[in-house]
Amino acid sequence: MTETILVVNAGSSSIKFQLFDVGAYDRLKRRLRGQIEGVGTRPRLLANVNGDTPVEETWPKAEVSNVPAALDKVITFLRKQIGGRMPTAVGHRVVHGGPDYSAPVVVTDAVVNRLERFVPLAPLHQPNNLAPIRVILERQPRMLQVACFDTAFHRGHPEVADRYAIPEPLYEEGVCRYGFHGLSYEYISRRLGEIAPQTAKGRVVVAHLGSGASMCALFDGKSVESTMGFTALDGLPMGTRPGQLDAGIVLYLLSEKGMSAKAIERFLYNDCGLKGLSGISNDVRELLPSADPRAKLALEYFVYRIVLFTGMLTAAMGGIDAFVFTAGIGENAPAIREAVVRRLSWLGLKLASQANAKGEQLISRERSRVACYVIPTDEELMIASHTLQALRERASSQLKERRA
To answer: Is the pTM of this model over 0.90?
Structure first.
């Protein structure tokens, strides 16, 4: 009987999911991927099974009004695909692990309670990430669930990189720089090790450019610095988030604009970034062809900040050997890649224009002092891999108990 691992990434109105088969020698093979979107409004399931014709199902609004109801639909769909069985284990993306978790962890009630403490640090993500975990704990308490954190990969930073210049008691409470998109960076680190082993041992800047965007400095495959900090608001401008912001602006919004803390939270998470700058859209695909000067400004600002942070990350490592683009924009927007690389020519980075236009893996010229790659990320495979490891560790532990 083939073991299967379900990977879940839950949002406020959607659940993205992928199912992996565990094959010989514990090789993971993606069987299907899909999502339920429009939860509570116009619920619809879209899935692709083994590359076949996409499957689509829709339901009345009242039938899928919340995340637990959506999860029920996902499980029902999956059981049809795997002979009526439940998945062997479930891996979840959880944005914030706080100071407590530096590696994936098997879920228990106590773990969920601890993770709830970090909701204020990731208000758009954490509650939704935890919702399906609670449902499965309640309905399938024996099911192995593994929480995989976006912050964990960065927890090995030197203290000087993660501190803020604030009093010690706040640091002891966990007010420090965490960094995010760790599952993506962990995958890129491993994949680069397969593509260019010697380069992967050196100094690499990775730009995870999507609706959420950040950058990371990798030295010998390990994170040493990141652009994101205490929350996922810091660093690069994003689709609707501002990125680096003077804290005095928040004080100004409180004192001069009379905005409440909740109103400021909504503003910073939903109304800024490319959307705020352009006044048009948070989507690079809409901004690139636009003739509106505000769209041009938003994209120029995005590129400018990527270049500035490249300098910071390069300084943190004392140099740079390679630059990697990944995630939605990084993988699919040659114009953004070109604009970034052109402004990084001072580092000795030379673009191979034709390779970039075609979206090839290596987009730097042969004589470029810094190699430049486009590597698609795969956070779901990373989660499945961590979940499989936990599954094997549990089986080994149970075997030892039986023999004792």
So the answer is: yes
